[in-house]
Specification:
2 domains, alpha+beta, four-stranded mixed β-sheet, Glutathione S-transferase Yfyf (Class Pi), Chain A, domain 2, globular, binds glutathione, Glutaredoxin, 8 helices
């Protein structure tokens, strides 16, 4: 049994979607970051960094935070959605890191400036809007002639998709990136993705372009 501490944001959705895809037994716990649950003494024992998501795997005694590390851990635990070794594995890891180091943080900043604080910091708005578009261009080029991000469906797809599901908040028209849109809609149709999207509570339908 795995305890999942999460909220309705992309980093949390990555892990609930992965747990649904792997078919692992888990219990979701709501950490509402809008009311400061992440700073409670109880949660800080699980993740001293006060960020969601985190898991406790009672089968192994492992407590883990950071969505990319959790995805890697779950893929290794199950032996699924990540090649076991060789060039195919490192290619999927490359895109997992691309998301962790660039796509996720940049889109998060784009939300902060473009959607939550418009007009306060024009330079930052232009910077993150431009960088977001550049990263979508990278993804569009990557998906040319490919069904998935790296080889077969993998944790690289699961890491990137929840961020794309917030396309309205980073003011991207998916119609400008048809290969990303095709990949996004294909994943949106998967039953485990739909189930994971509703954790820790239903926020509505998956946004469609
Ligand atoms: N690198 C971390 C980032 C986690 C993160 O930024 N979580 C956000 C929600 S998506 C959070 O907990 N924010 C609460 C806060 O900053 O106080 C990961 O991939 O899990």
């Amino acid at each position: 049994m795995i305890d999942l501490y999460t909220w309705i944001t992309p980093n949390g959705l990555k892990v609930s979607i992965a747990l649904e895809e792997f078919g692992l037994d888990y219990r979701p716990h709501t950490i509402d970051i809008t009311r400061g649950d992440q700073f409670s003494p109880e949660y800080r024992k699980i993740n001293p960094g006060s960020k969601i998501p985190a898991i406790i795997d009672h089968d192994t005694g492992v407590t883990l935070s950071d969505s990319s590390a959790i995805l890697l851990y779950l893929a290794e635990k199950t032996g699924r959605l990540l090649p076991a070794s060789g060039p195919a594995r490192i290619e999927a890891v490359e895109w997992l890191f691309w998301q962790a180091g660039g796509f996720g943080p940049t889109l998060g900043h784009a939300h902060t400036f473009l959607t939550y604080n418009p007009g306060k910091a024009p330079f930052a708005e232009a910077l993150f809007a431009g960088e977001t578009r550049r990263l979508y261009g990278t993804l569009e080029a990557r998906l040319a002639g490919r069904e998935h991000i790296a080889g077969d469906y993998s944790i690289a797809d699961i890491a990137i998709w929840p961020w794309v599901s917030r396309f309205q908040r980073h003011v991207i028209d998916l119609g400008d990136f048809p290969k990303v849109q095709r990949w996004y809609l294909a994943m949106a149709g998967r039953a485990p993705v739909k189930r994971g999207y509703a954790v820790p509570h239903v926020t509505g339908e998956i946004p469609l372009p």
